[in-house]
Amino acid sequence: EAAGFYALSKRVIQLPVSLISRATGDVFKKRATDEYQKYGSCTKLFDRTVFYLMLLATFPFFVLVFFAPLIFSKIFGSKWILSGDLAQLLAMMSFAQFITSPIGSIFILTNNQKWDLRIQLMLSMLVVLVITIGYYVFNDLKVTVMLISFVYVFKYSAEFYLARKFSKGKK
Prior knowledge:
Radius of gyration: 18 Å
Strand content: under 5%
Order of helices and strands: HHHHHH
Structural class: mainly alpha
Helix content: over 70%
Oligomer: single chain
Number of strands: 0
Distance between the termini: 53 Å
Number of helices: 6
C-alpha cells in the first residue's frame, strides 16, 4: 500500500519534470556543445538556462509544497491524501532535479564523466543507507521519503556545483 502512495506522488511530479527537463536538456546540450567548442566555455548559457528553469519552476513547486495534499485529495479522492503528503516531501528533490537534469550534459561535454560516476555511486550508497535508517530506526514512510529527498537534493546540489565549475572550461 505504501508503495502505491509513493508511486502516485512520484509519477504526478515526475511527468512534467521529465518532459520539460528532457526538452530543455536537448536544446542546452546542442547550444553548450557549440559554445564550448567555439569559446572554450559555456558558462553564460549555463547561467541563463538555470535562471529560466528557476523562473519556470518556482511557482508550480511552491504550490506543490503548500497544497499537494489538498490537490491530491480533490483530484484522486480523500484516500490519496498520503500521496499528497509524500509529494510535498519530494518537492524540493524534484525542483533540484528540474534545474539540474537539463545541464547534466556538461559532464560529457567537458569529459568529466568520472565525477558523474562518483556522484552516482555516492547516491546509491546513501539511498540504501537512508532507506535502511528510515525503515529500521524510524519505521515511518514519511520520514523515509524525506530522507531520500534530502539525499537527492544533496546529489543534485553536487551535480550543479560541478557542472557550473566545468562549464567554465579549463582556465
